[in-house]
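Data availability (excerpt). The following record was deposited with the supplementary files.
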Amino acid sequence: MTPGLRLDLPDAAATERAGRALARGLAGGMVVTLSGDLGAGKTTFARGVLRGLGWEGAVKSPSYTLLEHYPLSSIYLYHFDFYRFADPQEWETVGAAECFTPGSVALVEWPEKVAEHLPAADLAVRLAPATGGDGRTLELVATTTAGERCASDIQEALTAP
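Predicted structure:
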């Protein structure tokens, strides 16, 4: 739907601020993919989403647990990390499909590991180290109207004075 949007994130606080902005537009049934190399800021972005939804507890990478579930008052949020998947068929073994419901939001790190099973993303988020310096580059591709609203919220939050 929307051509990619590219934004600069000078530091971890900006990455978290982008996640907080995304939280404003999230609704049940949405899927947001988070791509990028190890250490790119995917979990920092997810922490911002959770803070934006009112979560005050710890937010950790689900690299070893595969999934962190956050039962918020407004929505169920599932934070997946498929980095350790060696075979996409593990999707069936762990029952991941059961988490993608009209009443939940899924944040999915390493979506390429389960691409053949993953529902279509409303918003694809890609984080990468900035060229020639500190910070990160954030790329957003929205494929639904809901995803476009979220991308717009992020752009507004990062460019507002």
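Summary of structural features: Residues 145-159 form the longest helix (15 residues).
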